[in-house]
Amino acid sequence: MIVRRLKDILGTSRDVKAQNWASRRLLLQEDGMGFSMHHTVIYAGTQTHIRYQHHLEGVYCIDGIGSVELIPSGVTFRIEAGTLYALNKHDEHWLRAETDLHLICTFNPPLTGNEMHDENGAYAAAAEITRVEADQTMQES
Length: 141
Ligand code: 9YT
Prior knowledge:
The protein is mainly β. It has one domain (6-140): Jelly Rolls (Sandwich). The protein has one helix and ten strands. The chain has one helix at 6-9; strands at 15-17, 21-27, 36-42, 47-50, 56-63, 65-70, 76-80, 84-87, 93-97, 101-108. (2~{S})-4-acetamido-2-azanyl-butanoic acid binds at residues 21, 23, 38, 40, 50, 57, 59, 95, 103, 105.
């Protein structure tokens, strides 16, 4: 059994910070669960362009207010505590946070470590991870 506490990973390599978010990676590929699980904080007032071409992601909000806008349809969903959204079609979207959003994020396949968004708002496929680049997503609005 794995028992891990948020306080134990803060400030470690499992605490990955980007311009718009901090992703605290409680479970990674090396933990052997077949998925990764993160407690992610999306900073208030930000918007992030995301399209995970190589992963499926389930996101469960435990605190905060925000929205997800699908691209290109513009269909928008309010996100608040108790809301789940699942990117079951690798959906391209804008993720916006009105207040700090606390999200429990699960990825299939699991993230392996310190992935950051690339220029397309994606994480590289596992074989490509050595060339991932820093999150550049938040400048445009
Ligand atoms: C909801 C989302 O995708 N936010 C970006 C960070 C990501 N979830 C992560 O690595 O935890």
